Amino acid sequence: MRQNELFVKTRREAPKDEESINAQLLIRAGFVDKLMAGVYTFLPLGWRVFQKIENIIREEMEGLGGQEILMPSLQPKLNWEKTGRWDNYDSLFKFTSFYTKTEYAMGPTHEEIISPLLAKFVSSYKDLPKYVFQIQNKFRDEARAKSGLLRGREFFMKDLYSFHRDEADMEKYYEKAKKSYLRIFNKVGIGKFTYLTYASGGTFSKYSHEFQTITPAGEDMIYICDKCKIAINKEIINEQNSCPNCGNKNLREKKAIEVGNIFKLKTKYSAPFDLKYKDEAGIEKEVIMGCYGMGLNRLMGAIVEIFHDEKGIVWPESVAPYKVHLLSLGGKGNIKKFADKIYKNLQKSGTEVLYDNREASIGEKFNDADLIGLPHRLVVSEKTGNKIEVKKRVEEKTRLVNEKELLKII
Ligand code: ATP
Ligand code: MG
Prior knowledge:
This protein is α+β, with helices and mostly antiparallel strands. It is built from ten helices and 23 strands. It has helices at residues 21-28, 44-63, 77-82, 111-119, 167-187, 234-240, 296-306, 333-348, 362-372, 403-409, and strands at 32-36, 39-42, 67-68, 74-76, 93-96, 103-106, 130-139, 154-164, 194-200, 207-214, 220-225, 230-233, 252-266, 276-278, 284-286, 288-295, 308-309, 312-313, 324-329, 353-356, 376-381, 388-392, 398-401. The strands form six sheets. A five-stranded mixed beta barrel has the order 9-10-13-11-12. The longest helix has 21 residues, at 167-187. The protein binds adenosine-5'-triphosphate (ATP) and magnesium ion. Adenosine-5'-triphosphate (ATP) is lined by residues 109, 140, 142, 151-152, 155, 157, 258-261, 293-295, 297-298. Adenosine-5'-triphosphate binds next to strand 8, strand 13, strand 16 and helix 7.
């Protein structure tokens, strides 16, 4: 991508009302635009990051046997009444049709849609198990949307739902999903900072599990057991004061943000929607469900909260919008020709490259490269002659290489 063709420009300052580091940096670097509190547009660079995260998640979900669908955001009141959540779901956005006076919800989650959907197709034990997921935008009337991408009022979630004949089968799948979640966090670069935590299971299960990423921007407090490499949520700590795995009482308190959540729903949503199957003996039973959520905006925000410095973002290679940032310092003549040639050759070799060919000052180009935060910076200038200066975003040291060597290291 030639940077002079991008319709988005970097900004010296983020909006004054934006408190969070992730949104400040993402707005200044031109990855997102703020429409209003908790609602953001993904701009070209930001959308590339989003899609990289999305593809990592999708690949794992397919590995879990998940079938991808897309459910509507616009949802009928009746479904929410059936589960009792029309009046009990705090952050449900509701509105009334001007013409028919019918009431609707904007989906904050999709148990109320997926359960009746599966009831149309599942009738026998032979139809189970099934795994269905989507990556879709959710709407929640959040009281405090001040954490940038970490807490939106409109945001993308991956939600997977599993359907089983009995709890044993659900438990097995639940354990597989746990491992898959940990692989996702490793792949997007935050594995080292992310803990499986024991959280409240509500009324129908002792524990549920969350995945919490340590960051000062987090809204939760977790208690880490260094022996088990897991953590415990505050509500559990208040009850038992020790690690549920090994009994260790020596726990480290840290601020964290919930990036994922897995839950044994059992029959909570199958019952109200008559989601049943007949077993081998023809006896009718309720389907056992599990659900597995993960926030994509929140993941992107958490990555920025962890990987930045005073100059800007420092993207992990797996989710960076481009792998290299090529800077041409010198708008015309031989330097431009040389830079153009390198740009073309990098593209030919399949390297994702952002080419700063703008007519801008050297300082501006360097500052923007640090702010945007691509993993490798390449500079072509009068000083570098017929060589290219290579620098990693995470390092200070630079080195000069010729074109052949460049293609080898990139
Ligand atoms: P929180 O306690 O942070 O409000 P939650 O328990 O409401 O989260 P779930 O309903 O389990 O979250 O949603 C699944 C996932 O969706 C969460 O793990 C998180 O990654 C993401 N998520 C939830 N709410 C938001 C939000 N307002 N903005 C961005 N992502 C969100
Ligand atoms: Mg919530």
